[in-house]
Every structure is written in C-alpha cells, then in structure tokens.
Amino acid sequence: MACLLGHKWDGCKCKKCGKTRDESHTIADGMCVVCYKQFAAMSTFTSEEIVLLGIALGTLSGLLKQQGTDATQCDRLSSLFKSGMADSNNKWLSQEDLQFIKTASAMYLEIIGLQNLSPKEEKLWLGLVDKFGN
Ligand SMILES: [Zn+2]
Ligand SMILES: [Zn+2]
Q1: Nearest-CA neighbor of 50 among 79, 20, 12?
Q2: Residue 93 and residue 55: Cα distance in Å, rounded?
Q3: 19 C-alpha vs ligand 1 centroid, how far in Å?
Q4: Are 29 and 86 in a shared domain?
Q5: Are both 29 and 53 inside the same structural domain?
Q6: Which ligand is nearest to the CA of 22?
C-alpha cells in the first residue's frame, strides 16, 4: 500500500506501509531496534576530540556555504558535536556520518594546514586519524 497522502511515521518506520527513513531511530547497543541499522558509539571519541571535531565541522560548514555547497550534513554533525551529545539518541553515529566526519577532517586539515596547529591539536588530530584508519 503506497502512502500517497504522506507516511505515518512512528520513529524511523511508517506505521501504514512499513517504509523506513534515516532519522528518529530507536537505538540500543549500536543498532536500531526497529530497522536494524547499525551505529557506532560516540564514545569512540574522547571529550577533547569531540570539541576538536565540533570546531572542525563548524569551520568547514561555513566554508562550504561560502562556496554555495550544501552543508546540511556538516551543520547537523557540527551541532551534534557542539551539543556534547546531551540527548541519549545522539550518542550514536551512522556509518555514513562516520565516513563524512573522516572526509571532513581531512578537508579541514588541508585547509588549515598541519603546520598551523598547536602541538596539542596536532597530537589530537594524529590520534583521530589513527581511529579513522581502522
Ligand atoms: Zn508509509
Ligand atoms: Zn531505525
């Protein structure tokens, strides 16, 4: 049955037709209990790394907008990192989000230039690059 007049969403799934969407998941132990999508725990990152990524994503988002590029995903992730993940549902990242963060970090470092980082920032970034490599 197609939902011609709009889906009736209950979290990530339509109650009428069973279609799923990539938002409002109900996540427990890294998996959505409704659609079985897998997530990575935000706790992969330390609080220092979360602050660093919030700054990087925020900066990149501004640059993307200046270029007229869509920065929706970047904005969403930057506010997520900046919020400190207060909401329990925000403690999880999808594989797509992780991939985006990895790419965004590389772009940010290229723009900023490694030589312009403080020794502390450089150490943090090197740790992050290690995490992304796995
Ligand atoms: Zn539907
Ligand atoms: Zn779901």
Answers
A1: 79
A2: 18
A3: 6
A4: no
A5: no
A6: 2
Ligand 2 centre and the CA of 35: distance in Å? 4
Q: Are β-strands 13-14 and 9-10 bridged in parallel, bridged antiparallel, or unpaired?
A: antiparallel
pTM for the whole thing?
0.77
Q: Which two tokens stand for residue 126?
A: 């090197």
**Whether residue 31 is found in the same domain as residue 46:** no
For residue 129, the tally of other CB atoms under 10 A from its CB is 13
Among the bound ligands, name the one nearest to the CA of residue 12: 2
My answer on whether 113 and 51 are in the same domain is yes
Q: Is the pLDDT of residue 84 over 80?
A: no
Same domain? For 1 and 16 the reply is yes
Q: Calculate mean pLDDT across residues 66-85.
A: 88
Number of domains the chain is built from:
2
Q: What is the mean predicted confidence (pLDDT) over 68-73?
A: 93
Give the distance (Å) from ligand 2 centre to CA of residue 95.
13
Q: Which residues contact 51 (CB under 8 A, 6 or more apart)?
A: 81
- % of the chain residues with pLDDT over 70: 93
